[in-house]
Amino acid sequence: MSQQVRQEIARDLHDGFAQELTLIGYEVDSLIATNTDVGVRADLRQLRFQISSLLDRTRQELFSLHKISAEPFEVRLAALIDELRFPFQSSLSIDTSLLTDGTQDELFAILRELLTNLYKHGNPTQLTIALESTTTGWQLTFAADGSEEISFKPGHFGLIGIQERCAKLNADFHQEMRDDLLLTFITKVSK
Predict the structure, then answer these.
(1) Which of 5, 10, 86, 89 could disulfide-link 66, Cβ–Cβ 3.0 to 4.6 Å?
(2) Total structural domains within the chain
(3) What DSSP assignment string belongs to 73-132?
(4) Is this prediction's pTM over 0.85?
């Protein structure tokens, strides 16, 4: 995807979705200010916190979409892991020569979703990400220990997004638990 297209998408999302989300936040603030029921106010504050968190994440995603990233894939991935402040060492083995720029962008978005889910639900102590050549294409392996909550449930937005991105790549997506590790495989067969 060209940088110009990225900027247009980011601008459209900002002018639409992000602005509407901001307005919803202001409406919730107004309800908090005018409501006297303590229980309702507490629920509204929790809702406001969730809206603010979503808006912050949306702004970060829009910034990522908008900015030109001249950094190599491995550097961006290491920076993302560092940004999430994982309290352990991770092992990265990425052969980017297997990927086009568009494929790198899609895989980065998939890895961002996997890492965010791991950060929110996993409590991991180890993480391995490997992208390797196979006899028929390439395979990305994402292995992490921690809670089984890190596996995606059918129908959840994170899984749907990953499956859609894999479909764009004509790649297969598979998860399994093995020896207390959640293994995620994304496999591309070259044509």
Answers:
(1) 10
(2) 2
(3) HHHHHHHHHHHTT-SS-EEEEE-GGG--HHHHHHHHHHHHHHHHHHHHHT--S-EEEEEE
(4) no
